[in-house]
Protein backbone atom coordinates (compact mmCIF):
# COMPACT_ATOMS: atom_id res chain seq x y z
CA UNK A 1 0.00 0.00 0.00
CA UNK A 2 2.77 2.47 0.88
CA UNK A 3 4.54 1.81 -2.45
CA UNK A 4 1.36 2.84 -4.27
CA UNK A 5 1.15 5.98 -2.11
CA UNK A 6 4.85 6.66 -2.81
CA UNK A 7 4.29 6.52 -6.57
CA UNK A 8 1.12 8.61 -6.45
CA UNK A 9 2.46 11.30 -4.09
CA UNK A 10 5.91 11.52 -5.71
CA UNK A 11 4.32 11.87 -9.17
CA UNK A 12 1.92 14.55 -7.96
CA UNK A 13 4.73 16.30 -6.09
CA UNK A 14 7.03 16.37 -9.10
CA UNK A 15 4.23 17.61 -11.34
CA UNK A 16 2.99 20.30 -8.96
CA UNK A 17 6.47 21.42 -7.92
CA UNK A 18 8.11 21.34 -11.36
CA UNK A 19 8.18 25.18 -11.69
CA UNK A 20 9.83 25.46 -8.26
CA UNK A 21 12.29 22.66 -9.11
CA UNK A 22 13.25 24.50 -12.29
CA UNK A 23 13.77 27.80 -10.45
CA UNK A 24 15.92 26.12 -7.78
CA UNK A 25 17.92 24.31 -10.46
CA UNK A 26 18.55 27.61 -12.33
CA UNK A 27 19.59 29.48 -9.18
CA UNK A 28 21.83 26.53 -8.27
CA UNK A 29 23.39 26.64 -11.72
CA UNK A 30 24.31 30.30 -11.29
CA UNK A 31 25.39 29.70 -7.69
CA UNK A 32 27.92 26.92 -8.34
CA UNK A 33 27.45 25.52 -11.89
CA UNK A 34 26.48 22.18 -10.37
CA UNK A 35 22.92 22.38 -8.99
CA UNK A 36 22.39 18.65 -8.43
CA UNK A 37 24.27 16.49 -5.97
CA UNK A 38 24.54 12.73 -6.48
CA UNK A 39 25.94 10.41 -3.87
CA UNK A 40 26.01 6.65 -3.43
CA UNK A 41 24.02 5.58 -0.37
CA UNK A 42 23.07 2.36 1.40
CA UNK A 43 19.65 1.24 0.23
CA UNK A 44 17.18 -1.53 0.98
CA UNK A 45 18.96 -4.81 1.83
CA UNK A 46 22.20 -2.76 1.82
CA UNK A 47 22.12 -2.48 -1.98
CA UNK A 48 23.78 0.75 -3.16
CA UNK A 49 21.82 3.42 -5.01
CA UNK A 50 22.50 6.98 -6.12
CA UNK A 51 20.67 9.62 -4.07
CA UNK A 52 19.86 12.91 -5.83
CA UNK A 53 19.49 16.24 -4.02
CA UNK A 54 19.96 19.90 -4.75
CA UNK A 55 23.54 20.88 -3.95
CA UNK A 56 23.94 22.88 -0.74
CA UNK A 57 27.73 22.70 -0.40
CA UNK A 58 30.58 23.66 -2.69
CA UNK A 59 31.24 20.97 -5.33
CA UNK A 60 34.73 20.24 -3.93
CA UNK A 61 33.42 19.32 -0.44
CA UNK A 62 34.50 15.92 0.90
CA UNK A 63 31.87 13.17 0.78
CA UNK A 64 31.22 12.66 4.50
CA UNK A 65 28.17 12.52 6.74
CA UNK A 66 26.63 15.97 7.15
CA UNK A 67 27.49 16.24 10.85
CA UNK A 68 31.17 15.77 9.90
CA UNK A 69 31.16 18.37 7.09
CA UNK A 70 32.70 21.80 7.50
CA UNK A 71 29.99 24.45 7.94
CA UNK A 72 31.96 26.86 5.74
CA UNK A 73 31.35 24.53 2.78
CA UNK A 74 27.66 25.47 2.69
CA UNK A 75 26.84 28.10 0.08
CA UNK A 76 24.51 31.00 0.98
CA UNK A 77 21.83 29.55 -1.34
CA UNK A 78 22.49 26.11 0.17
CA UNK A 79 21.74 27.50 3.63
CA UNK A 80 18.31 28.58 2.41
CA UNK A 81 17.68 25.21 0.77
CA UNK A 82 18.64 23.34 3.95
CA UNK A 83 16.58 25.57 6.23
CA UNK A 84 13.46 25.08 4.05
CA UNK A 85 14.31 21.40 3.24
CA UNK A 86 13.92 22.20 -0.46
CA UNK A 87 17.25 20.47 -1.11
CA UNK A 88 15.41 17.16 -0.58
CA UNK A 89 12.89 17.60 -3.42
CA UNK A 90 14.89 15.79 -6.16
CA UNK A 91 14.64 12.65 -4.03
CA UNK A 92 11.07 12.38 -5.31
CA UNK A 93 12.77 10.87 -8.40
CA UNK A 94 14.46 8.29 -6.13
CA UNK A 95 10.99 7.46 -4.78
CA UNK A 96 9.58 7.00 -8.28
CA UNK A 97 12.53 4.80 -9.31
CA UNK A 98 11.86 2.60 -6.29
CA UNK A 99 15.17 3.26 -4.52
CA UNK A 100 13.42 5.14 -1.73
CA UNK A 101 10.08 5.68 -0.04
CA UNK A 102 8.67 8.98 1.13
CA UNK A 103 8.80 7.59 4.68
CA UNK A 104 11.60 5.37 5.97
CA UNK A 105 15.05 5.50 7.56
CA UNK A 106 17.30 8.15 6.01
CA UNK A 107 19.85 6.46 3.74
CA UNK A 108 23.37 6.51 5.13
CA UNK A 109 26.78 6.48 3.50
CA UNK A 110 28.78 3.28 3.19
CA UNK A 111 31.50 4.74 5.42
CA UNK A 112 29.09 5.09 8.37
CA UNK A 113 30.00 1.65 9.70
CA UNK A 114 28.65 2.14 13.22
CA UNK A 115 25.20 3.16 11.94
CA UNK A 116 25.20 0.33 9.39
CA UNK A 117 26.03 -2.22 12.10
CA UNK A 118 23.26 -0.98 14.41
CA UNK A 119 20.71 -0.88 11.58
CA UNK A 120 21.69 -4.35 10.35
CA UNK A 121 21.31 -5.80 13.86
CA UNK A 122 17.81 -4.32 14.13
CA UNK A 123 16.64 -5.34 10.64
CA UNK A 124 16.24 -1.74 9.44
CA UNK A 125 17.69 -2.51 5.99
CA UNK A 126 14.66 -4.66 5.14
CA UNK A 127 12.81 -1.41 4.36
CA UNK A 128 13.36 1.14 1.64
CA UNK A 129 15.16 4.23 2.93
CA UNK A 130 13.02 7.35 3.08
CA UNK A 131 13.03 11.09 2.71
CA UNK A 132 11.52 11.52 6.17
CA UNK A 133 10.49 9.48 9.17
CA UNK A 134 10.18 9.37 12.94
CA UNK A 135 13.84 10.27 13.56
CA UNK A 136 13.69 13.27 11.21
CA UNK A 137 10.57 14.81 12.75
CA UNK A 138 12.18 14.45 16.19
CA UNK A 139 15.50 15.98 15.13
CA UNK A 140 17.53 12.78 15.54
CA UNK A 141 20.34 12.74 12.99
CA UNK A 142 23.25 10.52 11.98
CA UNK A 143 25.53 11.95 14.67
CA UNK A 144 23.88 9.56 17.17
CA UNK A 145 23.99 6.22 15.28
CA UNK A 146 22.66 3.91 17.99
CA UNK A 147 19.71 6.18 18.84
CA UNK A 148 18.98 6.70 15.14
CA UNK A 149 18.95 2.95 14.41
CA UNK A 150 16.67 2.26 17.39
CA UNK A 151 14.31 5.06 16.33
CA UNK A 152 14.25 3.73 12.75
CA UNK A 153 13.45 0.22 13.99
CA UNK A 154 10.71 1.58 16.26
CA UNK A 155 9.16 3.48 13.34
CA UNK A 156 9.26 0.46 11.01
CA UNK A 157 7.70 -1.84 13.62
CA UNK A 158 4.49 0.23 13.64
CA UNK A 159 4.54 1.99 10.28
CA UNK A 160 1.12 2.06 8.66
CA UNK A 161 -0.76 4.49 6.45
CA UNK A 162 -1.66 6.77 9.37
CA UNK A 163 1.95 7.18 10.59
CA UNK A 164 3.19 7.37 6.98
CA UNK A 165 0.82 10.30 6.38
CA UNK A 166 1.60 11.91 9.74
CA UNK A 167 5.38 11.95 9.11
CA UNK A 168 4.87 13.53 5.69
CA UNK A 169 2.55 16.23 7.09
CA UNK A 170 4.91 16.97 10.00
CA UNK A 171 7.85 17.27 7.61
CA UNK A 172 5.99 19.57 5.22
CA UNK A 173 4.99 21.71 8.22
CA UNK A 174 8.68 22.11 9.12
CA UNK A 175 8.95 19.71 12.09
CA UNK A 176 12.51 18.50 12.72
CA UNK A 177 15.81 20.23 12.24
CA UNK A 178 17.62 18.07 9.68
CA UNK A 179 21.21 16.93 9.97
CA UNK A 180 23.34 19.23 12.10
CA UNK A 181 26.58 20.68 10.82
CA UNK A 182 29.23 21.56 13.35
CA UNK A 183 30.48 25.13 12.96
Structure explained in plain terms:
- The chain has 183 residues and is mostly helical.
- The protein has helices at 2-32, 76-84, 91-97, 113-122, 134-137, 145-158, 161-172, and strands at residues 36-42, 48-54, 101-103, 130-132.
- A two-stranded antiparallel sheet has the order 1-2.
- A hairpin with a 5-residue loop joins strand 1 (36-42) and strand 2.
- Helix 1 (2-32) packs antiparallel against helix 3.
- The model has no long low-confidence stretch (mean pLDDT 91).
What is the topology?
Blueprint: H1 2-32, E1 36-42, E2 48-54, H2 76-84, H3 91-97, E3 101-103, H4 113-122, E4 130-132, H5 134-137, H6 145-158, H7 161-172
Parallel strand pairs: 3-4
Antiparallel strand pairs: 1-2
Helix pairs in contact: 1-3, 4-6
Brief descriptors of the model:
183 residues; mainly alpha; two-stranded antiparallel sheet; two-stranded parallel ribbon; 48% helix; globular
Short description, anyone?
Helices cover 48% and strands 11% of the residues.
What is the number of helices?
7
Give helix and strand order, one letter per element, not per position.
Answer: HEEHHEHEHHH
Q: Which percent range fits the helix content?
A: 40-55%
Overall mean confidence score, pLDDT: 91
Largest sheet: 2 strands, antiparallel
Number of strand elements: 4
Q: Within the largest sheet, what's the order of strands?
A: 1-2
Low-confidence stretches: none
Fraction of residues in β-strands: 5-15%
Query: Which overall shape is indicated by the principal axes computed on the Cα atoms?
Result: globular
For the record, give the distance between the C-alpha atoms at the N and C termini, rounded to a whole number.
42 Å
Radius of gyration: 15 Å
Decide which structural class fits the backbone: mainly alpha
Amino acid sequence: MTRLLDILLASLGLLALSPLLLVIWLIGWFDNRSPLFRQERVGRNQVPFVLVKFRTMRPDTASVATHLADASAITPFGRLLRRTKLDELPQLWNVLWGDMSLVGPRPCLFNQQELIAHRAALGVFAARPGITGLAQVHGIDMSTPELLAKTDAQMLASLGVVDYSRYIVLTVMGKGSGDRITP
